[in-house]
Each structure stands twice: as structure tokens, then as C-alpha cells.
Amino acid sequence: MRLRWAVGSAPLMARHPDLGYQVLDDAWFADAMEADLPLFDDWAAQLVMGRSPLPPDTLDARNQLLGKHFEALIATWLDASPHFRLRAHGVQLHQDRQTIGELDFLVDDLRRGRTLHMEVASKFYLAAEDGSGWENWIGPSGRHDTLRTKMDKLVDQLAACTLPPAKAYLAEHRIPTPEPVLLMKGWFFHHHSRLHRHKAPRWAHPGYNAGWWCRPDEAFEVMGSDHVRILPLPKGRWLGRFHPVAGDPPLHWSQLDTMLGDHFRRTRRALMCAVVIEGEGGWEELSRGFVVHPDWPDIRR
């Protein structure tokens, strides 16, 4: 089930040194997922019978920003779970007719007897240089998106409940002062030549999902083998673990140049690919990474 895998993959960051908020870790997720297994099993059974328990726009990521798609999946889970009570989602904070912030989720954790202000993020960062500093970690779309800017923004977002409009909202809806928590998922990608001797980002979760990145003229070094195939992944499949679906077009490495040439003639967007091998149960993922435009990270938005 896509929601289960998206929520259950490894956290991206362990902490931010400038704010003592909680980062929801493996233990929290394992406990939450185990408690809600009956819910996920029921959803999976409905999907097998051809009925969707989720809104169509939640399942289809093609017309959504990836972060908003991830947020919609989390909202669907929290709203349906018997162990949470979703008080509010996407609360806009206004002051002097201007929007000064937003609260992703206000939710009661019924099993633990606490109310949470939960900010969520799903991010993918590539090591432009081999270093642990957050400024070295850049999004696949270029330098306007870095791990440093995102983490510093999260500090402000998680402090938003201290703003007067947020306090007024909490009082009006009789919501106790919540604990700020961060739910952050995603991947870090190291240059393929440094994949086995890389430096992790500062304060990264020790079990983060790691992949590779390369430029088009380096792709053969990553993927060139008669035993493997290459499968481009649309954004809707970036969040979870790889599961083969009908219509997957695994490509032989000899088709790589043509495929990448066609892609980068149409767009500057980085291409996420899974390197797969055929096993007894079908195609199995060996590794995952980005092939970036030759001008990355200095590409225009």
C-alpha cells in the first residue's frame, strides 16, 4: 500500500541543533504502523477488490507538488486512524491581512495523551560537494532549494504556534498548547564515485535512505551491465519502496543514451531512476538515483 510505504520509510534528519523539537523517529513509526495495521490491511483489501478507500486526488500525484502529495497521504492516514484525532490541517495564519505562516497539522495522539503540532516534509537532496555542511546539499531542481534553507525554514514553521494568530486559533477551537514535532522523509544522494566513502549531512538520521547521482555522461558507469535494467520513476513513485507495476519499461543499458538525450532535450528536470534486476518475483530494485542535467546545480527554475 503506497501510504504505508511512504510513511514507513526511514526518517531523513535526526534533529536541528537550534530548536529542541522532536523528530519522529523509527520507534515512533514502528509503533504507529503496528497499531494501525488493521486499517492498512482493510484499505489494501478494498484496493484488491477494485474499490479505492482513498480520494482519487490522494492516490494520483501527477497533478500535485510532491510535498503536497505527501501531506495529503499523511492527512488521509491521520483522519482515518482510530489512534489520532485530526483537529486541523493547513491552518493559515493571518496578521494585518497578510499570511505569516501555516500549521500543517494539529492532531491529538490519543494513545500517548498529547496534542501535536506536526510539520511534515518530503525532500530529496544531492551532495554537490563532499561535505557534511547543509549548504552542500542541493535539491534536484537547483541551488534555490538547499537543505540549509529547508531546515532553517522548519525552525520557523515549528515555532509558529507561538505567534498571536496561532494562539488565537488554539483558544477559539479549545485546542491545548501542542508539542511541535517534525515528520520528515526522503533521500540523500551522493555522487556515484563517493557512494561508499561519503560524508553524511550534519544531524542526518543514521539510517537515512541513500542513493547516487550522476550526470548524463556518467550514467553508464552507474548502470552499465548486461544483468541490470534501468527504470525511470515518475514523481508519484519517488516516495515509497519500489514495487513493479504493469507497464513498467525496464531499459537495457544500451538504450540509456537515447533515453537521457530525449529527456534532457525536453526538460532540465533531473530524472530519478531505479536500477533493477529480474528475480523470481519480478523486477527488484538494486539502487536508486538521479541523473541530473549537465548544468546542475546552476540551472534556472
Please specify the SSE layout and strand pairing.
Elements: H1 2-8, E1 22-23, H2 26-35, H3 37-48, H4 56-59, H5 66-80, E2 84-95, E3 98-109, E4 114-127, E5 137-139, E6 142-146, H6 147-158, H7 164-172, E7 179-191, E8 209-214, H8 219-223, E9 229-232, H9 256-266, E10 271-279, E11 282-291
Parallel strand pairs: 1-7, 4-7, 7-8, 8-11
Antiparallel strand pairs: 2-3, 3-4, 4-5, 5-6, 9-10, 10-11
Q: Uncertain segments of ≥5 residues (pLDDT<50)?
A: 1-8
Which class best fits the helix and strand makeup? Answer: alpha/beta
Instruction: Choose one word for the global shape.
Output: globular
Q: DSSP helix count?
A: 9
Average pLDDT metric: 87
Strand residue content? 25-35%
Domains, number = 2
Structural description of this entry:
The structure is a single chain. With 301 residues, the protein is an alpha/beta fold. The protein has 2 domains: 189 residues, no CATH class; 78 residues, no CATH class. It is 28% helix and 30% strand. The protein is built from 9 helices and 11 strands. Strands 1, 2, 3, 4, 5, 6, 7, 8, 9, 10 and 11 form an 11-stranded mixed β-sheet that branches. A hairpin with a 4-residue loop joins strand 3 and strand 4. The radius of gyration is 20 Å and the shape is globular.
